[in-house]
Design a protein that fits this description.
The complex is a heterodimer of chains A (410) and B (300). Chain A has 410 residues and is an alpha/beta fold. Chain A has 17 helices and 11 strands. Chain B is built from 15 helices and no strands. Chain B starts with a helix and ends in a 5-residue tail after the last helix. The chains are: A alpha/beta (410), B mainly alpha (300).
Chain lengths: 410, 300
C-alpha cells in the first residue's frame, strides 16, 4: 500500500512536472509577424483570433509601411532581429529566398494537412517558389482586366455584350469611343515609370509570347507598338505616362474614359462612383485563341530562416491559410486559392466583375521570380517610357531593355 | 581640480563645454553619416551587406558605372536647370514681393505674413495640389490658359517631356518664394532710412537709389538666400515624388530623386551613395558661398 501510494504520488508528481514543464515551454513561444495590413485588413484580425485560441503560441504583430517593407526587413535580418514571419510583395519574394533569408517550407508543406499547394492558383504559388522549392505561401492575390462603360458602348453603336476580344478590336473600339469634344478618351491605363508600368505592360508581352527574359521578342514589340498607337492617336490621355492605375481608373469612373485596365481593388469605389452601367472583360489577346496572361499582384507570407521556432511559425501560417475563406467576405481581398469560391456580395455589377477576375486569375503570371526584379522592372519601365514619348522606336527601346536585363540575368 | 571647476563655471572650460555639445551632436548626426556615405560609394553594397561596415572595396567602379549609364548626363543637366531656374524664379518673385511690401501700406505686414503659408505647407501636400493644377485634361492651369486664349490645345505639363521639368520648377518657385521674400524683407528693413533721405536730397531717382543703395546693402542677404536656395532646391524631393516621379522617360528626373530611386527602389545602395557624394560636392560649394557672404556682414 505504502509502495503503491508513493508510486501514484510519484507518477502524479512526474505528470505534474511534465505538464507544468510543457505548459511553460509552450507559454514561452512568441512568434512575431510583420505586415503592412491596417486594423481593418487581414493580418491583425487573424492574429487576434489566433491568440484567442490559446494554442500556446503567442503572436505579436507589427505594422510596417509599404515603402519600408524590404529595407526594414533586410536591416532586421542582417542584424539578427528579423521577425519570424513577414508579408512581402510578391516580386520581392525571390530577393529573400534566393539568398537564404527565407525558410524552405517544402517539407513542412508536404506533411501539412492544412496547406496543399494544389489549392493555389499557379501564378501566386509560382511567386513564392525559388529553385523548385516553396519559400512561402500566397497571402492574397489580384490581377488586372478590362473595365468598360456599357452605356458608352451603346451610344457609339458597339455591342455592350461583346467587349473587345483582341488587341485590334480594342484599338478599334477605343477609336470609336474616343470623343475629344465630350472629354472622353477610349481607354485609361497606366504606363507610369514605376512598378505599375511593368505590372500593366508585362501581361501584353507575355500574351504575345514575350516575357522578361526575352522582352524584345516580336510579340512584345508588337504589344508596345499597340500601346504607342493608343498614345499617339490620343485614344488615352497623355497623362497615362505619369498617372498610376488608381488615378487613371478615376477618369473612367467620372465618365472621361470609356474603358480602363485595372484590378479588383477598384470595385468598391466604382460601385459607388460610376453613374453608368459597366462590365469587366478578360484582357484582350493578340489574336483569337492566343495564350492568355495577366498581371499578378499582392503579398506573400514567408518565414525568416533565422527564426527560433520554425514549427510554431509554420503553425501560424497554417492558421492563416485555414482562414483564406474569410479573405473576401471579411476583408474584401481575393484569396490566392482556386478551391475557394468567392461568395456573392449581392451587388450584381460587382458579382459579375468578380467572376471575370477569378477567371482571369487562372492566367495570372508572377513578375519574375528573380532576386533582382527591381532592376529588370526598371529596364522595362524605361523602354515603355522611351517608346511612348516618341524618343525611340518600340524595337530599339525593347532591344535596349533586353540588353540591360541580360546584364542583370548574367 | 579647483581651477578646473572654476574654469568650467566661468572661463575657457565653460566655452569649450558649450561648443563641444553642439559639435558632438553635429559630428555624430551629420559628420558620421556623411563619411559613411562617402565610404559606401567606394564599396559594393547590396541588401544583405547593409548591416555590416566591412564590405568589399571596389575603388571608383561605382563612379565609372554611373557615368557609363546613358541617363546620367541628362539627369545632371536637369538638376542644373532645376536649380538655376528655381533659384532665379524664387529670388526674382521673392525680391519683387519684398520690395512691394516694404512700401508700407495698410495691411502690408499682415499680407506678408499670410504669404508664409506656402512655406509652412508640407511638400507632399503642395505636390498633390500642383498635381491637380497641372493635370493635362482637367487642370486649372490649362483651363485658365485656354480661356485667356494663350493656348489652343491642352498642355500635358506632367507627361510631355518638354514640359515636365518646368512643371516641377513652377511648383517649386511657388513653394520657395515666400521664404525668399521674408529673408529679403529682413535685409531691406535693416537698411537705414537716412541713406535714402540723403540720396534723395542729392537728387537720386528711384532706379539710382535701388542700384547704389538697396542692392549693395543687400549683398550679404542676397548671397545667403542664394546659397540657402541652392541647398533647398537640391533637397527638393517631395514635389518630384508627387508630380512627375521623374518621368516621363527621366525628362524630369534630378539627382536627388534618382539617388532615392536607385537606393530604395532598385536597392542599388552604392550607386545611390555615389550620386549623393556628387551632390555633397555641389552643396559644399554653396556652403562656402554662404559662409563667406555672411562673414562680411556690413550693416549701417
Amino acid at each position: 500500500m505504502a509502495i503503491r501510494g508513493s508510486a501514484i504520488l510519484g507518477a502524479l508528481a512526474l505528470a505534474g512536472v511534465s505538464l507544468f514543464g510543457l505548459a511553460a515551454k509552450a507559454e514561452d513561444v512568441t512568434i512575431s509577424v510583420w505586415s503592412l495590413d491596417r486594423d481593418i485588413q487581414p493580418a491583425p484580425n487573424l492574429i487576434s483570433d489566433f491568440n484567442k485560441l490559446n494554442t500556446g503560441i503567442k503572436v505579436e504583430y507589427r505594422q510596417i509601411q509599404f515603402d519600408d517593407v524590404v529595407s526594414e526587413a533586410m536591416r532586421a535580418y542582417s542584424t539578427g532581429q528579423a521577425p519570424d514571419i513577414i508579408a512581402v510583395d510578391n516580386p520581392e519574394h525571390a530577393l529573400f529566398s534566393s539568398r537564404g533569408a527565407f525558410l524552405d517550407l517544402t517539407d513542412m508543406i508536404a506533411k501539412s494537412t492544412v496547406v496543399k499547394t494544389s489549392n493555389y492558383f499557379p501564378g501566386p504559388l509560382a511567386s513564392t517558389m525559388w529553385d523548385g522549392k516553396n519559400y512561402g505561401l500566397p497571402k492574397a492575390t489580384n490581377t488586372i482586366a478590362l473595365y468598360y462603360n456599357k452605356d458608352m458602348f451603346k451610344a457609339k453603336g458597339l455591342d455592350p455584350d461583346k467587349p473587345p476580344q483582341t488587341w485590334d478590336e480594342l484599338v478599334d473600339a477605343a477609336r470609336k469611343l474616343t470623343d475629344p469634344a465630350a472629354n472622353v478618351y477610349g481607354l485609361a491605363f497606366s504606363a507610369k515609370a514605376n512598378e505599375e508600368g511593368t505590372f500593366q505592360f508585362l501581361p501584353w508581352a507575355q500574351m504575345a509570347g514575350g516575357g522578361y527574359e526575352h522582352i524584345n521578342s516580336d510579340g512584345a514589340v508588337k504589344a508596345l507598338d499597340i500601346w504607342k498607337t493608343i498614345m499617339t492617336e490620343k485614344l488615352a490621355s497623355p497623362d497615362t505616362l505619369t498617372r498610376g492605375q488608381w488615378d487613371s481608373t478615376g477618369t473612367f469612373n467620372s465618365g472621361n474614359a470609356a474603358m480602363a485596365i485595372s484590378g479588383p481593388w477598384e470595385l468598391d469605389r466604382m460601385v459607388s462612383e460610376a453613374k453608368f452601367d459597366w462590365g469587366v472583360a478578360l484582357l484582350p489577346v493578340p489574336e483569337l485563341g492566343a495564350e492568355r496572361s495577366s498581371a499578378m499582384g499582392d503579398f506573400n507570407w514567408a518565414i525568416f530562416s533565422n527564426t527560433q521556432h520554425p514549427a510554431e511559425a509554420f503553425k501560424v501560417l497554417e492558421y492563416f491559410a485555414s482562414q483564406d475563406d474569410r479573405m473576401f467576405k471579411d476583408f474584401g481581398q481575393l484569396p490566392a486559392r482556386s478551391d475557394i469560391a468567392i461568395p456573392e456580395t449581392g451587388v450584381p455589377l460587382k458579382d459579375e466583375a468578380l467572376k471575370v477576375f477569378v477567371e482571369q486569375l487562372k492566367f495570372a503570371k508572377p513578375r519574375g521570380p528573380h532576386p533582382e526584379w527591381p532592376k529588370i522592372s526598371k529596364a522595362i519601365q524605361d523602354a515603355i517610357q522611351a517608346a511612348l514619348t516618341g524618343q525611340m522606336t518600340s524595337k530599339d527601346a525593347l532591344d535596349q531593355a533586353a540588353e540591360k536585363i541580360k546584364a542583370v540575368l548574367g | 581640480m579647483k581651477r578646473f571647476l572654476s574654469s568650467m563655471i566661468d572661463g575657457r572650460g565653460f566655452d569649450i563645454g558649450l561648443v563641444s555639445l553642439p559639435l558632438a551632436f553635429l559630428l555624430t548626426l551629420s559628420g558620421l553619416p556623411l563619411l559613411y556615405n562617402i565610404v559606401m560609394s567606394f564599396q559594393e553594397v547590396d541588401m544583405f551587406s547593409l548591416g555590416s561596415f566591412w564590405r568589399p572595396f571596389v575603388g571608383l567602379k561605382n563612379y565609372r558605372d554611373l557615368f557609363a549609364q546613358p541617363e546620367t548626363w541628362p539627369i545632371l543637366a536637369n538638376t542644373a536647370t532645376f536649380v538655376a531656374a528655381s533659384i532665379a524664379g524664387q529670388f526674382l518673385v521673392g525680391f519683387g514681393l519684398a520690395l512691394f511690401f516694404w512700401t508700407s501700406f495698410p495691411g502690408a505686414s499682415w499680407l506678408r505674413g499670410l504669404f508664409l503659408v506656402s512655406w509652412v505647407m508640407p511638400g507632399l501636400v503642395v505636390g498633390a495640389i500642383w498635381n491637380w493644377i497641372l493635370s493635362g485634361d482637367f487642370g486649372v492651369l490649362n483651363f485658365i490658359l485656354r480661356e485667356t486664349g494663350l493656348i489652343d490645345g491642352n498642355i500635358f505639363w506632367r507627361s510631355d517631356p518638354g514640359f515636365s521639368l518646368w512643371a516641377v520648377i513652377i511648383a517649386n518657385i511657388w513653394l520657395g518664394t515666400s521664404f525668399n521674400m521674408i529673408l529679403l524683407s529682413v535685409g531691406l528693413s535693416a537698411i537705414p532710412r537716412d541713406l535714402y533721405e540723403a540720396s534723395e536730397l542729392d537728387g537720386a531717382n528711384v532706379w539710382q537709389r535701388f542700384w547704389t543703395i538697396t542692392l549693395p546693402m543687400m549683398r550679404s542677404s542676397i548671397g545667403a538666400i542664394m546659397a540657402l536656395g541652392l541647398i533647398f532646391t537640391l533637397q527638393q524631393f517631395d514635389l518630384f515624388a508627387a508630380i512627375t516621379s521623374g518621368g516621363p522617360n527621366n525628362a524630369s528626373n534630378v539627382t536627388q530623386y534618382w539617388a532615392w530611386d536607385l537606393s530604395f527602389r532598385q536597392y542599388d545602395f552604392a550607386k545611390g551613395a555615389t550620386i549623393s557624394v556628387i551632390m555633397i560636392a555641389f552643396v559644399m560649394v554653396a556652403s562656402v558661398v554662404y559662409v563667406r557672404s555672411t562673414r562680411h556682414e556690413v550693416r549701417g
